[in-house]
């Protein structure tokens, strides 16, 4: 464990953010950067699980007390539940664990009873009497039941099983259907980064108009938007055009986000973007990842985007701390935009091409 990391209070009470709430609903607050636990679902190496309690503790001690998981992320809920119980039993302020309900709608349409059973299973895994947030995922809009399932989650909320109801990977039309059903939807979790700016095609505006927080994954593209990938192209052995080295993709996340890079404009444009981010980062004495995260957070009115950063180890805690103090000025934004203007995509609404696959 890095010396001093666990003594750092990166996030204070004043930094915390609240979901919109309505009468008789328990308010939920969270840290401005959320710890992503998709790595615990597999595909990111066994080292992710080594010393996991210490990693969770280091993040919480630093003030990064909000963790994002799902009912389909392997043993993630159980691991987080055991940590959260131990943490609270020691007298610490409870952490927040945001989970997801991802029903297999291809096999069976959710019913009120099956929704409640799934919620109670997550409660048991997380060892809590009430879930902080449940985000609904819907694989195929051609299958009926999205609104009814949203209302079933609201019924669970009315029973005191859930504090807040949210969404994940919904496009703007589907999110509006959930909201128009009368349910207080507090967030939508979507992919959003310099490489994937689809939320700017209407989603962010809709969320701002309706007080819905936008949780964003892929904001550093599994580490592909980091200092590690800053390099100059090099000539081959026999001359010819200069080329960038081929990156080694070691995790499921990186393989997925390389697909996003192809839609963005290809590996060469990605490398140019990273090089531009490095120039901005050096100007502010921060990292490339800091710039990528802050770019997303400053979009729209600059108050509704909250990145999820993968919690593979504790080395990013100090870096995330520095990033919270960063503000990109107009010159920074213009420099970055000069590369984005040459991008070819991805186009459409959130989770569009993924849902088609």
Order of H and E elements:
EEEHEHEHEHEHEHEEEHHHEHHH
Which strand order spans the largest sheet, edge to edge or round the barrel?
3-4-5-6-7-8-9-12
Question: Proportion of β residues?
Answer: 5-15%
Percent helix: 25-40%
Low-confidence stretches: 1-9
Mean pLDDT: 93
Number of helices: 12
Distance between the termini: 41 Å
Question: How would you describe the oligomerization state of the chains in this entry?
Answer: single chain
- Evaluate the radius of gyration: 20 Å
Task: Tell me about the largest β-sheet.
Answer: 8 strands, parallel, barrel
How would you describe the shape? globular
Care to count the β-strands?
A: 12
- Determine the structural class based on helices, strands and strand pairing: alpha/beta
């Amino acid at each position: 464990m890095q010396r001093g990391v666990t003594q750092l209070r990166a996030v204070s009470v004043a930094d915390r953010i609240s979901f919109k709430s309505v009468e008789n609903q328990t308010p939920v607050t969270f840290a401005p950067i959320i710890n992503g636990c998709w790595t615990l679902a597999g595909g990111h190496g066994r080292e992710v699980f080594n010393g996991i309690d210490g990693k969770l503790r280091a993040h919480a001690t630093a003030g990064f007390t909000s963790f994002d998981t799902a009912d389909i992320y392997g043993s993630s809920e159980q691991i987080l539940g055991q940590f959260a119980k131990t943490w609270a039993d020691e007298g610490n302020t409870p952490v927040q664990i945001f989970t997801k309900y991802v029903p297999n709608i291809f096999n069976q349409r959710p019913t009120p009873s099956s929704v409640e059973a799934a919620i109670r299973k997550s409660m048991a895994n997380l060892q809590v009497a009430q879930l902080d947030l449940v985000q609904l995922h819907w694989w195929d809009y051609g299958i009926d039941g999205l609104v009814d399932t949203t209302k079933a989650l609201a019924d669970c909320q009315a029973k005191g099983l859930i504090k807040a109801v949210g969404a994940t990977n919904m496009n703007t039309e589907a999110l509006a259907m959930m909201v128009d059903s009368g349910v207080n939807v507090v967030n939508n979790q979507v992919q959003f980064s310099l490489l994937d700016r689809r939320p700017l095609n209407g989603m962010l505006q809709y969320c701002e108009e309706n007080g819905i927080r936008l949780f964003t994954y892929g904001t550093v593209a599994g580490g592909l938007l980091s200092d590690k990938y800053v390099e100059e192209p090099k000539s081959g052995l026999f001359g010819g055009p200069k080329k960038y080295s081929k990156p080694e993709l070691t995790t499921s996340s990186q393989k997925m986000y390389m697909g996003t890079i192809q839609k963005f404009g290809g590996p060469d444009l990605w490398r140019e973007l990273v090089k531009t981010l490095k120039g901005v980062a050096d100007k502010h004495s921060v990292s490339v990842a800091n710039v990528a995260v802050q770019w997303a957070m400053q979009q729209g009115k600059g108050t509704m985007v909250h990145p999820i950063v993968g919690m593979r180890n504790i080395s990013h805690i100090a870096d995330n701390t520095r990033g919270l103090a960063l503000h990109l000025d107009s010159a920074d934004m213009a420099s970055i935009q000069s590369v984005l203007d040459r991008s070819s995509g991805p186009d459409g609404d959130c989770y569009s091409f993924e849902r088609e696959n």
